[in-house]
Structure formats: structure tokens, C-alpha cells
Amino acid sequence: MLSWRRILNRLRAVLRSALVTFVVLTATLWLMPGVESADIVDTLGLVLVVAGVGAVLRPLLLVGVVVLGGWGAMLLGVVAQIAVIVVALEIDPADRISGLPSLVLAAILAVVFAAIIDWMLDSGTDDTFVREAKRLMRGVRRRHARQAGGPFLTLRRPRPGDEPGLLMIQLDGLSEPVLRWAVRAGNLPTLGHWLRSGSHTMRGWHTGLPSTTPASQAGILHGATRQVPGFRWYEKDTGKLMVSNRPRDAATIEARLSDGRGLLRDGGVSIGNAFSGDATVNLLTVSHAALPGRSARGWAAFMASPYGFTRALVLGVGEVITELHQARLQRRRNLLPRVSRSGAFLALRPASMLLRDVNISLIAEQMARGAPSIYCDLVDYDEVAHHAGPARPESMRQLESLDRMLGVLARLAPEAARRYHIVVLSDHGQSQGATFRQRYGETLDELVERLSGETPPLVVSSGNLALLYLTQFPHRLGRAEIDKVHPRLVPGLAAHPGVGVVVVREEDGPVAYGTSGLHRLRDNTVEGVDPLLPYGPHARADLLRHQESAHIGDVVLISCVDPVTEEVAAFEELVGSHGGLGGWQTDAVLVHPARWPIARPELDGADAVHFQLVEWLDMLGLRTPALSADEEAAAIAAEPRLSHVRDG
Predict the structure, then answer these.
(1) DSSP secondary-structure letter at 535?
(2) Closest by alpha carbon to 419, among 224, 162, 155?
(3) pLDDT tens digit string along 139-151?
(4) Residue 178, CB half-sphere, CA atoms under 13 Å: how many?
(5) C-beta separation of 106 from 32 below 8 A
(6) Which residue in 358, 140, 163, 167 sits closest to 264, CA to CA?
(7) InterPro entries, from UniProt (predicted)?
(8) Contact of 583 with 431, CB cutoff 8 Å
(9) What is the pLDDT of residues 71-97, one digit of tens each?
(10) pTM of this prediction?
């Protein structure tokens, strides 16, 4: 604790903080109307006042943030930074600003300036973020040591843990070809170093159909992809449209997925995922809809820190400005394909950046707590790629920022209570292309209505996959029944140039129709031109497996795919899409320690990835043997059931 290196680092941090505070206060006082004096000596005195007020108030405010949790922590986190400046200006000996409105305005300006200056000083590095995270981790570990009977106060740094742990980071929407290209280009120094040094290796895996986050996570976390036929779908038995990113629907879906034996069942932690994987701790998990509560100090620390939520809010405004500029450049250059990047996406982009930083703070806390397994989904790349394109410069910059976060986690590893092995994977890829509406001047809904008349089927789209439901019938219809109600529907869809495959059930099983032929999926018989040829060697197996999904549509559509560019025509207004087949959307990736065994030479489907991860957990000794049904029933009867932590 008293080594020269640490003393110098601490002095450097104090000097930097003092310099930033001086510059911020000088600029703020200069901009405030009616402030006549900006004397350097007075300002230096105010710097000391700010430091003293911060030293007293911030620990108290942090306690309040911890107690409030959730939304209260977010609000108090912003108020905390402003309150420190307001109090300091109020007791300023020079008394240059008076009146609460002026004090609050000056404090807000100071907080904004501080965030901008800190960002400029830290540009290209994550040193400040790492220092804050390490401070959080040491505090968590010392608290645990005290609870275990250790000394109340110690200056000794906790030693790195020896027992193994598994940290699984999902880079949402990242295809294997994009990742390989980025590594070869040298744009991802962290992943590139792991792969070039031989510590890790990279392999692709095939997602199957549907290629969506909920379906893939149902498989990866629970081994149950067939419960999820798309990103959204209709259930005839309840008359309900299910949307998998709505918390209430996600909770219903998870109840169907979970058998108590998910990937994270043995003390694992789920962070930012669609489903829990039967984790003991759930943070920002959609199916457990709530913000992290009082037990998540990583959430509280991020919200209360000057380098946390407040800084992210200010920089989020910069993200919005950057997004408007990048969208304007696409329009001026007439870059095609493209879609509108306004509306809700302007809020999604800074929100995903904020969520990334929060997630890393939550991971740091759980590493300090010694969670045996952690699974976290980082969505930055996926959100931007949907609207900019999966290989466009904006998307690649998001991927580079995620690579930096992997570097941050590697730097935090020595502070963890376990020796964590890192696995990086994606849930699906993305395929680019002009949308169906852009190409043909009408939406898929309008086409279906034109072909079917007064009572059109319900159209539910997920990227370039669409499920059609004849909602007036309580059961799934076959081709003959569909033709009786809508005789022009199936032939009209199959003949349309924007529809590549139409799948319906016939007496001898599901049949895939195209513009010039058909493919009987069950017996692999082709008549005319095989409509599955542009979709690759897995297409037949993918469609057959998809036909066995719960709540599948009466008609299943896959949009056309260009055999040269592999571009698809999404049924949603997204230039980068996923959900169906064609292009890179089914080409996911898995990066893992190079010496770890792979049980299957080819990972086909998210369920296969689930079983591979389970085998690695077994190998590390992090998974208890599964009980038989009788043993599990006896254990439940013998002991009271402990409820899982549901912090979000």
C-alpha cells in the first residue's frame, strides 16, 4: 500500500482531479452572468472547498444510492454530482454566486464541463474506468472478508483468487466473418492478442432458424430453442401476440424454458440477458423486469461516481450528435442500402453505450464476489448495425469499443475472487440489404392483404422471417385448408420476387415453395429449381427444425437472398437484419481458451452451444451433477425452497 509506485499513482490522480476542477470552475464562473471576480487564488481556494465537500458528501450520498437502488439510484447519482458543487459554491469564501437557481445552473455547467474534459483526457484509454472498477472490487472483497471474520480495517490489497470461474461475454449480433475481418485488420487489439498469442481460438457456429437473440439465448442458457419461433409470434390458444423483449412476455416464455437446470443454475449470474439461465442473481435481465436493487453495489457505485452515470449522460448527447452527423453523411453520399436513423434509434444508441458501462461495473462487482459463472450480453454493435449496416464504419467503431471492454475485464481479473476464464461468443450475425418495402414499394402486410382480401392473415415479422397466422382458426392449418380460405395466398407469395421461400404443411410433411420449384423437406425431394439453394447447406435442416417449434405460423416466409452479395430483403425497416436465413445472420462465433476440448466438431444450433458450455463448466468443477427426477423431488420435499435474487 505504501510502495512508491502506488504513492506516485495516487498523487498523479489527485493532481489531475485538482487541475480538472480548476479548469471546470474557471470556465463555469466565466460563463455565469453577474460574476465579476474570477481571481486565480479565489478559484484555487474553491478547488479545495470542492474537494473537502466531496470527501464528506459523496460517501453519504453513496449510502443513499445503495439504499434506494433502482431508479432512485439513477436520480440520486445525478443529484450527487450537482449537490457537491452547489454546496461548495454556497460556502465559497469569495461568495461569487448566490441564489439557488444560479447555484444549480452553475453546478450543472460544471458537471457537464467535467465530463467533457475527463473524456478528452481519457480519449483512447479506459484508465479512469478501470481505477473506479478496481476500487469497487477491493471494497466488495474487503467487506466479504470482514463478514467472514477478518479484520475490520486493513490496508492490504486482497490477493487474486485461485479457484476457477467462467466469464461468458456475448457480443450481440456479431457474425464470424465480420469478427475475423476485424481481427485480421488489426482493429481489435484485445481479441487479436488472445488469438495471435494462442491463448484463445475462434470457431464459428450455426444458429439455425430463427436467428434471433431470444431464440439463441433460449438455447444457450436453457437448451430449449424450440419454444421460441421468432422474435415475436402469435399464440392461437390464448389469442396473444408475444414479443420476447417485453418483460411480461419474457417472464412467461422463461417459465416454459426453465427446468431448473439452466446454464447458470449453480450460483451463476445473468446480466443484461433476455432470460436468466436459472441464475441465482439476475441483473438487468428482461424476464426479471426490474433495475438492480440494494444488493447490487456495482449499480450504486456506477450511479454515484463522477465517472459513471452522469458522465455517460453527457457523452450520450455527443452520441446523438454523432449519429445525426453519420446519418447525414450516408444521405449526402447516397450510400445504399440505408434506412432512416432518426426516431427511437437516437435514444437507443446512447442508451446502449450507458448499458455497456453499467454492465461492466456489474460484472466487476460479481467477479469480486466470486460468482462461479457470469453471462452478460453487450448489445452496442447489434443496435448500430441494424440501422447503419453490419460492416459499416459506425458499426465497426462500436465493435472496437466492445473490444476495449474485454481489455478492461482482463485488467480487472487480478482483483477478482476467482481466476476467471473468458469465453466470448455471439448469438447470431446480421445480413445487409435494402428492405422489402424499399425494393417493391409495399410492405409484406400490404402484399398479404392484396392477395387474401377482406380477412387477411396476421403477419408477424422478425427480420427477413415472417410468420402468417389465420387467427380465425384455433389450430395450425395445412395447405389445403389455407387454399380454401385464401386460394391466391400461397401461389402469390411464392411467385413474388421478394419472397424466396414459402413453407406450408401438406399431407406428407412441410413443403418449401419458390418461384420455380419446390422442396419437400421431409423426404428431401425437389421438383423444378430448388428454392433452398441460395440459403446454404443447412437450410433444409433449419426449416425442418423450425417447423417443430411451438406456435409456428400457418405459413412461414423467408425473404429473397442475392446469390452474389448475400443481401436479404428484410420485412422490417432495418438495413442490417436477422431472424431468418440468408447471408451472415446465421454465422455466429465462439472464442474460447485454445486448450479446452470441443465435444462436437460442428456446433449446429444454440442448444449445441449450451451443452458445450455446460461441459466446460463441468470440466472446471463449477456444476453439480444433475439429480434424477426422484432425487430432485425428494430434495425439494426435504428442504424449504430458497427464492432467487430478483434484482432485475
Answers:
(1) G
(2) 162
(3) 888 887 777 776 7
(4) 34
(5) yes
(6) 167
(7) Alkaline_phosphatase_core_sf, Phosphodiest/P_Trfase
(8) yes
(9) 555 566 667 677 777 777 777 777 777
(10) 0.82
